[in-house]
C-alpha cells in the first residue's frame, strides 16, 4: 500500500473521529480567491502560496489552509454553536526548505461557540492530544493574547502600539520597532533628512495620491520622533514576558509577577487561569505542560489567543504534527459585521504514519 494512500486512509479515520466528537463535515474549494488572503496576510502570502489566474474569477491561490474558508462559510450563515471537521490537501511553497512537502493532507476540527472560551480551548486541545496518544511528542502551548494585551498597555502612542501589534508575528521586525521606540538605536540618516525637510516632495507623482501619501508619512514620522521613548520598566517587563518558558503553573506565576509593571495583561492571565482549570478537568497533566509566551509568533498569523502544537523532539527536521489555537479576530475580519469566538486545529496524518513506522521499526 502506497504512503499517499495510507495517509488518505488515516485522514479519513481522523475525520471520522472528529465527526464522533461533534464535527459537521465541510468541504472547501481547492482554489481560493487571492484577494481575501492578501487582505489578511498582505503580499507576504505570495512567498508561501501557489498563485494562479482565472479569466472569470481573477487571481486565485491553491488552498494554503482550511481555516479561512471554513470561517467564511460559517460567518455566511452557519448555526451557533457549531463544530466542523474536514480533510484534504493544502499547498505551501517551501523555497527555504526543499526537503519539506509542498503538498500534504490536513485534517481539522473547528469550534464556534460563545458559551465558554476556556472550555472550548480545552476541548480542542484534549481532542488533538487523544489522537496523538502513544507517540513520542512534546506539547507546547502559548497565548498570543497576553502579548497583545502587553502591547496595548504600553505608555506610548497609539501609532506605535498599532505597529507593534501588526508585527507580533514577525519577531525580527517587532524587535527592531521595539528598540526604535525605546530610543535604543540611532535614527537612520535618511530619516533624519526626511524629518529635516531635505527630501524633495515636489517631484512628479507616479500613480494616484503619491504626494499626499508621502506627506502623510512624513507627518506620522515627525509625530513619532517627538514621542517619548517607551519607559524602561515597561520595556524590561515586556522583554521578560516574551522570554517566559516554563511549565504552565510556573509560567502563570512568573507572568503574575510581571503584571506589576504590565497590569494590562491581568485579564489575559485570568483567562489563562480559567483555561488551566478547564484542561485539568479534562484530565490534562497541566503541571508538566509547557508554556512559551512567544510561542506561535512565527507561523500562526491569524491566532490571537491560545495556541498549541505537538512536536517530535527526536525529529527536529519534521514540522509540527498538529497545531491550533484561538482566532476570534479572524471571525471579525471575515464576518461582515458579525463575530463569534472560535478555536480549532489541524493534524497531519502523514507525519503520524512516519512516527509510527519509526516506533515499530
TrEMBL record:
> What UniProt keywords apply to this chain's record, in alphabetical order?
Glycosyltransferase, Transferase
SUPFAM superfamilies associated with the record: Class II aaRS and biotin synthetases (SSF55681)
Q: Where is the Aminoacyl-transfer RNA synthetases class-II family profile domain?
A: 14-349
One BP annotation, GO: histidyl-tRNA aminoacylation
Q: Which domain of life is it from?
A: Bacteria
Cross-referenced PANTHER family: HISTIDINE--TRNA LIGASE, MITOCHONDRIAL-RELATED (PTHR43707:SF1), HISTIDYL-TRNA SYNTHETASE (PTHR43707)
- What's the name of the protein? Histidine--tRNA ligase
Q: What species does this protein belong to?
A: Tritonibacter multivorans
